Amino acid sequence: IIILDMELQTVANNLTLHTQEVVGLDLIHDNNILASGSRDNTLAFWNMNDFSLVYYREHAHPNGPNAGHDIRSLIALNNNTVVCGTRSGQITFWEFEYKKDVSLTQTGYR
User: Fold this and answer.
1) I want to staple 20 with a disulfide (CB 3.0 to 4.6 A). Which of 5, 39, 49, 96 is the partner?
2) Distance separating alpha carbons of residues 20 and 30, to the nearest angstrom
């Protein structure tokens, strides 16, 4: 993830963690945290004040029981909850404050 300084028109930072395409980014405004989700099954939270990695988790191991649940979309609902959609049609509500999934919904879409 490349962070640009639009005023200086330079690269401010390069956030490295994801190994595949980043498919979702959203800013949790009050906490100044950037949430990112990738097809490599990782969900990450970045502090935009100092560009540090605050927390990350593997959403689903590619060979584990949740294989196929790799992240395809991400949006922050509020200052604590991020929603991830997966390739298999699963929707996960994830709470940043508690660092855990709070709800899983299967849409039936594949």
Assistant:
1) 39
2) 28
Find how far residue 87's CA is from the centre of its chain: 14
Residue pLDDT, tens place only, 7-42: 999 999 999 999 999 999 999 877 789 999 998 888
Q: What pLDDT shows up at residue 31?
A: 76
66 neighbors 57 (Cβ within 8 angstroms): no
User: Which parts of the chain are beta strand (E)?
Assistant: 2-5, 10-14, 22-28, 33-38, 42-47, 52-58, 71-76, 81-86, 90-95, 100-106
Listed in sequence order, the residues at least 6 apart from 33 whose beta carbon sits closer than 8 Å to its beta carbon are 27, 45, 46, 47, 48, 54, 96
Q: How far is CA 18 from CA 51, 93, 98, in A?
A: 15, 20, 22
Indicate the pTM of the whole model: 0.79
Top pLDDT among 41 and 110 is at 41
102, amino acid identity: V
